[in-house]
Design a protein that fits this description.
This protein has about 800 residues and is mainly alpha-helical. Helix content is about 70%, strand content about 5%. It has a six-stranded mixed β-sheet, covered by helices on one side.
């Protein structure tokens, strides 16, 4: 065993000779011990043999040897402790816990090493009850303070269960808890994604080291925290960690720089990246393949491929990862010819591209909207014998989702499953985002079930994605239920719930959640206030919105952005305070953006203010010359004022500038099929069009008898009233609602419709009447918010009525 371990100092040639001799002799000794019966009757021989087998790389045989034997009482304390330790070291958590339980039942005393390994097994297996029992035994035996490994593994056991408070208590109360124990808990927090806890523990070590028995953080401590920041997207905190490290007088090493560069690459802060590079050079740190790859990756992700190439050319040592970073950088920038040229250069340097190389290209194609080329490349590498992995498929799915091709995301997901590749947590997040984009509630529920089976639901990031999906798919109740079960809610999760409440018009609930967040110590950001102001806008709460807006910077330290200004303009304009909205725009810092002028134009259209509308439109035609919505809004307003020549002039201006009207569509899901209804025959007519229009005529006739009058003011064409009434029947949201009613008549399930533009007044009124007539719940998501129609009423209380051209 000693020869195999290479413990004696000797020449390399003598060491190789001894190892070869030991490898020949070891099987003979094993055979002799078994034939003579010593291996199963003599505990010390069995223990030494298990050690020997472990060094030979045959740990499974050694563990099996310890579990077997002649009779029940042949093992002594040494052998029992050895068995527990070997099982835990091999990652057989249940086996180690079972062996520890059995030895204690037999009255065998556990030593410190076995206790430490048993605690480690309990933590990794999530067996908190057994872990507390081992803790109790260690306390009674006096092992917590006596054995150097027990404090770290004990604290680690509690940290594995996310009970960082208990882990910290163990560290503070144990005299033997040195820096290794503290680092073990911090590493556990990082692995579980508890970055805030890791930062707090490291900060406590630095703060209390001089005044208490707390261990002082080492370079390894800060590097562990840095790696957690880089891995979990806490990029700003990473810079602060380096500052704390320098204040302590510690010199960063290559691992520090690599982690910091990953954070810079994630955030895209090129200025910080160049500072890190300069620091690296000033301190005489020679770049190896690892740090060199991190530098290339950072510059590539920050969009400076020229600097990435310069670093790459200057590296003495390059590995496959270095080449892959440069290939991925060019692919993400859309420079596919250069990326493929680099792949060929790799081959000339006798480096075979691996699946990571091809994944970089697949991601580049997909993120640049070239999903068909990405799929073609995936099939080509598969035919060449390179098996696409979960990253390959997730890149393809993510790229499709990024470019708005949500349906394509699910097509690729189906192919991924047919290929036998299991989705990862990242795949789940991307697909949930696609469900939110398409409002596919049933598909989202399927993914939720999948997350439960894979135990992903315990991850805060997955719960956040589920909250977002359910809210955007129209099931606010489910979103609230998921949100209520989240342990350790962070700002991103709360913002997702706030946004969901906002788009459903639940302004008072959103305000209550915001104040709960503030009282719990969560600091709001810009997204928080966008959601709050949107919630106020959805219900016309002017006073409350002004209070939030005025306190943003003064009380909460968040500077208002153009988006926040646009929310205020939209609210004021919709409520009819057009002059105040105009004054607000004029005193806004910087040049007002298109979103503010667009909000003002919408308000002018609602209240018929032509003069202000023309002023807003002039700015919009300059800022967004190809946005058809602005032209159509002004054309509608001109039609309302009987200014047909001006409307016709705008129509000619659109043609001259090559502006195409944004195609309107609505869709609903029946069973597992999505049925789309488009304006102007953008696709072949629905096969059941006659039945849909027949049911539409019947419903309209019935609601006319209870007071419905067609609002022809929603039609911006100079045509007779009868023609306008006919055109109102063609609005896509009406068609989708009627089809949903036909196909869900037996189930009586809510009819869910998604529309890509805003709903007009007439459609709003018709759907209200239909919900009462049919006794059905109808949920419609338009470009602005959700409308829940029940018993002839809408959740917006008829506030959200506006004009637009369908």
């Amino acid at each position: 065993g000693d020869l195999l371990h290479g413990e004696a100092e000797k020449s390399p040639e003598a060491e190789r000779t001894d190892i070869a001799a030991a490898r020949r002799l070891a099987p003979q000794l094993h055979s002799l011990a078994v034939r003579a019966g010593h291996a199963t009757r003599e505990p010390h021989v069995a223990c030494a043999l298990a050690d020997l087998l472990e060094r030979l790389g045959r740990g499974a045989s050694g563990r099996r040897l310890l579990a077997e034997g002649d009779g029940e009482d042949w093992k002594d304390a040494v052998l029992w402790n050895k068995q527990v330790a070997m099982l835990a070291e091999a990652g057989d958590w249940d086996g180690a816990i079972g062996a520890f339980r059995e030895m204690r039942a037999r009255g065998v005393a556990a030593d410190g090493y076995a206790c430490a390994r048993a605690l480690h097994a309990c933590g990794r297996a999530g067996r908190r009850r057994e872990g507390r029992a081992v803790h109790a035994h260690a306390l009674r035996a006096g092992l917590v303070d006596a054995h150097p490994l027990v404090p770290g593994f004990l604290a680690g056991m509690y940290a594995e269960g996310a009970d960082v408070a208990a882990a910290t208590t163990v560290l503070l109360r144990t005299t033997g808890a040195g820096v290794v124990a503290w680092n073990a808990v911090i590493a556990c927090c990082v692995r579980l994604g508890l970055v805030d806890d890791a930062l707090e523990l490291a900060g406590r070590m630095a703060r209390d080291a001089e005044t208490s028995a707390v261990a002082e953080p080492t370079l390894a401590t800060w590097n562990t925290v840095l790696s957690g920041c880089a891995r979990h997207g806490r990029d700003r905190e990473a810079l602060a960690v380096v500052g704390r490290m320098l204040e302590q007088g510690l010199s960063p090493d290559a691992a520090t720089v690599s982690s910091l560069l990953k954070s810079v690459a994630n955030s895209g802060f090129l200025g910080h990246g160049t500072e890190v590079h300069g620091f690296f050079l000033r301190h005489g740190l020679a770049p190896d393949a690892y740090t060199g790859t991190a530098l290339v990756d950072m510059y590539a992700k920050c969009g400076r491929l020229d600097l990435a190439q310069r670093v790459f050319d200057g590296l003495e040592h390059r590995n496959l990862a270095t080449w892959n970073s440069l290939v991925a950088g060019h692919a993400n920038a859309g420079q596919f010819d250069r990326a493929l040229e680099l792949v060929e250069t790799m081959k000339r340097h006798r480096l075979d591209p691996n699946v990571t190389t091809w994944n970089g290209l697949i991601t580049g194609y997909a993120m640049n909207g070239l999903s068909s080329q990405a799929m073609l490349l995936l099939r080509q590498i598969k035919a060449a014998g390179v098996a696409p992995n979960v990253v390959s498929w997730t890149s393809l799915i993510s790229g499709s989702c990024h470019s708005g091709d949500y349906q394509g995301s699910f097509t690729f997901f189906s192919e991924m499953q047919q290929d036998g590749v299991q989705p990862s947590l990242v795949t789940m997040l991307v697909l949930l985002r696609a469900c939110a984009g398409l409002a596919l509630l049933n598909k989202g529920k399927e993914l939720h079930c999948f997350a439960l089976r894979r135990a992903y639901d315990g991850e805060v990031v997955v719960s956040t994605a589920l909250v977002d999906m359910y809210a955007k798919a129209g099931s606010l109740t489910s979103a609230k239920r998921v949100f209520g079960r989240v342990q350790g809610k962070n700002l991103v999760c709360c913002n997702a719930m706030l946004t969901g409440l906002a788009v459903h018009g639940q302004a008072h609930e959103a305000a209550a959640l915001f104040h709960d967040m503030w009282r719990s110590g969560l600091k709001p950001d810009g997204i928080t206030f966008t959601a709050l102001l949107t919630a106020c806008r959805s219900m016309g709460l002017v006073t409350e919105a002004w209070e939030y807006f005025d306190n943003m910077e003064a009380k909460y330290g968040v500077a208002p952005t153009a988006e926040h200004h646009a929310c205020m303009v939209d609210l004021l304009a919709r409520r009819g305070y057009l002059d105040e909205a105009m004054a607000f725009i004029e005193r806004s810092p910087g040049e007002p953006g298109a979103s503010s002028w667009g909000a003002l134009l919408t308000g002018c259209a609602i209240h018929g203010n032509l003069d202000l509308a023309e002023s807003a439109a002039r700015h919009l035609f300059r800022l967004e010359p190809h946005n058809s919505a602005n032209y159509l809004a002004m054309m509608s307003l001109y039609e309302q004022h009987r200014m047909f020549d001006e409307a016709e002039s705008l129509k000619y201006a659109m043609k001259a500038r090559g502006v195409d009207a944004r195609p309107g569509w609505s869709w609903t899901q029946a069973g597992r099929s999505v049925h789309v209804f488009e304006v102007d025959g953008g696709s072949p007519p629905h096969p059941e069009t006659p039945e849909i229009y027949g049911e539409m005529s019947r419903l309209v006739s019935q609601i006319r008898m209870v007071g419905y009058v067609p609002d022809t003011g929603c039609i911006a064409y100079d045509v007779p009233e009868e023609e306008k009434e006919r055109l109102l029947l063609c609005h896509t949201e009406k068609l989708a609602v009627v089809y949903g009613l036909i196909r869900s008549d037996k189930s009586r399930a809510p009819v869910r419709v998604v529309k890509n533009t805003r709903m007009c007044r007439d459609c709003h009124e018709v759907i209200k009447h239909v919900s009462a007539l049919c006794g059905r719940q109808i949920i419609l998501r338009d470009a602005s918010r959700f409308h829940h129609f029940v018993d002839g009423k809408c959740s917006c209380d008829d506030y959200w009525l506006h004009s637009r051209v369908n």
